[in-house]
Amino acid sequence: MKAFNPQDFHILIVDGTSDNDNLQPTIARLAETGYGISFVANEQKALEAIKQLQPDLILLNLTKQGANVLEIGKTLHAHSEYARIPKLFLTANREQEALLETLDSGMVDSLSQASNELEVLACIRTHLKLKRNWEQLQKAYSELEKLVNTDPLTGVANRRALIAFGEREFNRAKRYAHPFSVLAIDIDRFKQINDTYGHDIGDRVLIAMSRSITQYLRQVDCFGRFGGEEFLVFLPETEELQAAKVAERIRKRIAKISLQVAEQTVTITVSIGIATYQPGDGTLDAIIKRADRSLYSAKEQGRNRVGISVPVVLSSCSCQSKSELRSIS
Length: 329
Prior knowledge:
The chain is of the alpha/beta class and about 325 residues long.
């Protein structure tokens, strides 16, 4: 963990007193220690300065604990961008009820205006350390979450994250009768690429394809590696016809990819299977399996094409269905 360095922090002092002699020793010690310091004279200017400077800590030295002081705390506490900024309040009112009200407003601590500069500096240092530790924990958590949910080779969602997203969208589609489509994508003759050019080139193919598809999709979509050379795309709020257009554009986009290997050019094609949520689908797995059947039908029909699974009722008195496959070339 990085050593604590005052020069890494900026403090905003809101000093609304007519006589700030009690604060001068603290200001001098803060500057001497290396903290960056900015000043505003009242509560109104404080909000503007906070938005502009985004300080690491706010020290309020005001004549009295008025409604405006508490409003600053509440406003900042409600704002996600500023909620984690420690706010210290110097006050002459040390009554218990007033102190509790201060803490409830979002202030992290309250000190007497009679406190000497060493007490104030110690309090500032403590809360800055707590803030920094929280930020480092948040960063570590984000990095860990990314590792847990990301395929290490391609950088797209792994199977775990993919299925978690798919389950949420499947349940939403089932509950609200919203459209939801799945694309199953498989690289054609990928084993042949590995056998001919080596696994390093195979990895480059996977990476190039993943980047190409990622750039094309919407933010609400989820694209990930299902296993090996097979990938899935979950398309919320997407009917079959829209999904077919997306799949066909992806197919054409991938067909334009080429990798230079020594004196040879490696080209890529994919086969894509589509399945759309139907009211009778009991699980996400049912849709994925239908998309897989469409995918392998597309491969059987010559690869580098899109296959669509269409439920067809066998008879008016039967509850069973089968899948009739058609392809888009």
